[in-house]
Prior knowledge:
Layout: H1 14-55
Amino acid sequence: MMPLYFPEDKTEYIIPAIVCVLFIIGAIATWRMFIKSSEREAENLKEMEKRIMEKR
């Protein structure tokens, strides 16, 4: 079993923290992109439904 590594020099945590923050920002940006895309798709479907109902 491999022992855990906890560095004495705490500055070694800076780069992993930056990478973690970048991944979180990327995840939030992707989440927001999916929400906006979903809202646009719902709006298009409502317009399409409205046009279909008007034809009847």
